[in-house]
User: What shape does this take?
Amino acid sequence: MKADTPVSCQLRVRFTRGSDIALGPGKVDLLEAIDRHGSISKAAASMHMSYRRAWLLVNTMNRCFKSPLVETRRGGDEKGGTRLSAQGQSVLGHYRDLEAAMRSAGEKNMEAILDLIVAPDTD
Amino acid sequence: MKADTPVSCQLRVRFTRGSDIALGPGKVDLLEAIDRHGSISKAAASMHMSYRRAWLLVNTMNRCFKSPLVETRRGGDEKGGTRLSAQGQSVLGHYRDLEAAMRSAGEKNMEAILDLIVAPDTD
Assistant: This one.
């Protein structure tokens, strides 16, 4: 346990489509990593995630949204041909804005609750 | 799958103290039920939860906060002697306000993302 982060507040926003998780914090982090690295395998490696898992998450997202969030050209992953579509960029931007707006709006009540929690003993 | 709720957005706010979850949606629902029923056992029953599980959740909350959120007089549970403390009422109020403020602040971006998700086939 890190002594400098004894108590904290986590916010999770999750979009579901039937029993599928269309979008959540992990998938959004993956979108951001794909945007940065231009490759699913490099994005997966940067997140210490298997390629297979990253591919499955991308597959679920692409299936849940009206058009794919991640575009991979044929044989493209190894050659840097993977990127976010315009809709992928849009969804990523909306999600980050959503988190920021929520954090900001909730800050006062969040702090009030955090102030009432006992700091844990230093281990 | 209910046809009238095909896609949705869930918000979860969780407060942690070290490895303990001090407060989250389930514990807040339990606080609300205890406030309504004046009894841990009745609150548990109303949530289809075992008395043991409810008691453990209350125990974790009481341990994590500076003063107990739930007060039970000796032998009080069966006699309706269980209630939220002033701090319990305060934490419950702050959490519900927090959720409402976040939902309201995030509504626009939330709707923008929901609009891009495919509605599932009717099963």
Notes: Chain B has four helices and four strands.
